[in-house]
Amino acid sequence: MTGPSGHPVLGELTPVEDDASRVVDLLVEGERLLEQARVQGRGRAVRSVVRQPGQNVVLLALPAGGGLPEHDAPGPASLLCLTGEVVLSTAGASWRLPAGSLHAIPDARHDVLAEVDSLCVLTLSAAR
């Protein structure tokens, strides 16, 4: 299911607190989101952790077998796998991202599949 923007993550985001001084423990918040995704029976749970002009940083909790369905990139973006392992795929290529790996999101339709329970950081930047 995709949100009103046509992007499966952007349409699910709730407003983030506008407190630039707060620190977010991504691993603690990620575990909470993974549990939420499991309880809800969804393939993902998402939370915007930083939102500022020109940039949105989103924490993705993807239970094993979950992920993001095929969709278009909303602009310049990157995907960092914090824990677990995910596969980022387009029609012509795929990239395996184990924990600690980062990859630019291609400017093409793509999807993401979690091989195991995984936490990822999606960074979306305003087009230049």
Automatic annotation (TrEMBL):
UniProt xrefs under SUPFAM superfamilies: RmlC-like cupins
Which InterPro entries does the entry mention? RmlC-like_jellyroll, RmlC_Cupin_sf
Q: What is this protein called?
A: Quercetin dioxygenase-like cupin family protein
Question: Where does this protein come from, organism-wise?
Answer: Ornithinimicrobium humiphilum
